[in-house]
User: Fold these one by one.
Assistant:
Number 1:
Amino acid sequence: ALLLFIVVFILTADYIKNRRLTGFPPGPPALPIVGNIFTLDHKRTHESMTELAGRYGDVYSMRMGQRWVVVLNGFEAVTQALVTQGDSFSDRPSIPLYDDIFHGLGVILSNGHMWKQQRRFALSTLKYFGFGKKSLEPMILEEFTYVAKEISAYKGKPFNPHLIVNNTVANIICLLVFGHRFEYGDEQFKKMMKLFEQSIQIQVSVLAELYNAFPQLMRCLPGPHQKFKRINEELKDFVRTEVKDHKQKWDPSDLRDFIDYYLNEIQMSKGQDDSTFDEECLIMSVLDLFGAGSETTSTTLRWAFLFMVKYPEIQERVQAEIDSVIGQSRPPSVDDRADLPYTDAVIHEIQRMGNIVPLNLPHVTNRDVHLRGYTIPKGVTIIPNLTSVLFDKREWKTPFTFNPGHFLNEEGKFVKPAAFIPFSAGKRLCLGENLARMELFLFFTSFMQHFTFSMPPGVKPVLDYRFGITLSPVHYEICAKPRHE
Ligand code: HEM
């Protein structure tokens, strides 16, 4: 009888605490305690979430364990929240798995004054090092020569591009942040890349989801959080070594990279009460740039190869355009973009269909808000579903077909529809958008200038994905035939 009483008590308390209040967005019925954790197909969460909008509307709610989540769908609802009402929707929620290890430092996970200072600093420093003093263009083009050599060594035989492309893209962040690149075979580099990969795998595991839904309970059990902590401590140590080295060689009259510049900021802001610049925050900002700036661009390039082998006629047309505008004797330059509308359209369509950050990063309401007739209290997690925007039937002519025509007008000129928001929108807009766009353009045109991609004989291209924070193609092998000696 006691047990029955406890069960009835828990269920009643859960019902009273978690019922949808009047004016709150509707959504699928939730189970007691666990809520809607099992409503979604976790292998394709982004598609399940988009489908639910068909039943409950563009703004609907779900409960993940004890946490309410509002999912925003379609271009109108997402931009109304993130842009028009951006002040209310720009904070990040607390995520137990991260909070315990990163303590809300850096750019991606921080809020308020810390976020403003760190974001402004990172943006202006990337701009200074990337586009100002040391131009990014030669860095990217030089890195291409290394990856081209690596790929040429396969002599058109099948290889898995995953690690090679990851290393290439990670090296651009290394150049900006550490001031140097790594050889692809370097043991330290290989270890760092492996740690990042493991860290991502844990973040997308079901155990991590359970940890975030029931942190008090899960903290007491052995689980993914201990391993996650260990991996991230190792990553922090890696950055700490670089910081130590930079401090020894630091010369305020010659700031070489992001770390030097940050050390300078720590010095300059000493004595200011509201300064958030210190070494722990530096380490987190560096990890943020790696975490957000490596996997994303490299996954997009891996989708690019797959789309080109799936649609060889599009690959040929891109190559023809590059041959006629740039030729074979000089590398591409960002200034060529305006003369390569078809290639530019293809890159944008790869980003749209690749949809690599399918559910965006989570946001949270920082006050009670009214959105599209609903009332959403302060502290509710918001998922601005980018899948529902990049495939929004109201915005795209053929949403589910690879169609570079989405980005070309009748005269064949490049146009960018407003619903193209793979980098999100509003105050939290991706901080690396300019860098990513430059990398994608220069790497993609260089690859197309030098290689023709095809599947290994007898293998058909498969566009299957693995769902995670990023949506990545399942591992595949590809052949890259050099186009000229
Ligand atoms: C945030 C997409 C490359 C740094 C984001 C967000 C998205 C995104 C969707 C979340 C925005 C939001 O919360 O509303 C992408 C895509 C990329 C890419 C599709 C490549 C194709 C990069 C690169 C860097 C970078 C190269 C850095 C060098 C960041 C940072 C944030 C962020 C620091 C957090 C911004 C904040 O919280 O204020 N990105 N990103 N990203 N991205 Fe990117």
Number 2:
Amino acid sequence: MSDVRIDDLPVRDELRGKSPYGAPQLDVPVRLNTNENPYPLPEPLVERITERVREAARSLNRYPDRDAVQLRTELAKYLTETGGHPLGFENVWAANGSNEVIQQLLQTFGGPGRTAIGFEPSYSMHALIARGTGTGWIPGPRNENFAIDPDAARRAIAEHKPDVVFITTPNNPTGNAVPPETVLALYEAAQAAKPSMVVVDEAYIEFSHGDSLLPLLQGRPHLVISRTMSKAFGAAGLRLGYLAADPAVVDAVQLVRLPYHLSAITQATALAALEHTDTLLGYVQQLKAERDRLVAELRATGYEVTESDANFVQFGRFENAHEAWQKILDRGVLVRDNGVPGWLRVTAGTPEENDAFLDAVRELKKEL
Ligand code: PMP
């Protein structure tokens, strides 16, 4: 063991005293804390991945396709078929998880001397990646129902003139979607203020009651929609995120991407998963039904619930959310305390996992 602490090293000032992103990875029977898909990949898909990876292994002496053209072409087809807006590979860029997509966007459009805004509470990695890329972070407002108030948000954009505006819809951790009119209003405000890039994080869009905002890309070159295979495709372990935007944005992020960032194994695995899109989207339908059941049962038990368009539900209110989190954990169910005062978040799992969760929170209610 070493006695040297991080702060003994000559780390950048803005990293001193900070903690890394850290959702607990605890070994408990029911893990409903990181918005993963509870269904393992179907066996025929596992077989197909094995085949494609075996094939890719034969040329691992060579670097992978640096531009991942085949994968981007298949992602563009998926977006075209499900998003109501035609896109080609030149509109799509892929990286190791949407976290890396966001990092590349901030390296390109943020950075030292520049700022980004997000409307909080929202996905905490937006702020953390901003810090990691030297981009100033501006916490923007939400109202007491966790909705983005268009006027307040427009004022914040006009005042701070950020270089990048993040809009997460459906939002994490609250679960609610942002209406398209609000996104449009913020896009206009961002163009009037700077103009800046508007990044719509649609990590959970496949679970939404509403449609993707992909059609808004038409005629809006400063709009970027980011997506992931970690949730709807049930492939969090794969690490594959992607974006859709004007081809100029795709060209711009290539200025900062590491060469060959997407391994041949990743590309082969993602291509196999895309061949099984229909089956995987079938699981999404089941999860949406389970999400709606969680909302209904939590309300019937007397909890408050934020409207959810995602594969998770924010519920409360608790006088002490962390204590409630611990009591649910003591009953073998791991949920997430995102630090939103009074609220916790549960990911929709299998029906059995959700039953275990509901039993735990019904018992907890009696104690409160
Ligand atoms: N955006 C949002 C809103 C998320 O909640 C997450 C994952 N928790 C991500 C992006 C990142 O996902 P990944 O890097 O696995 O694609």
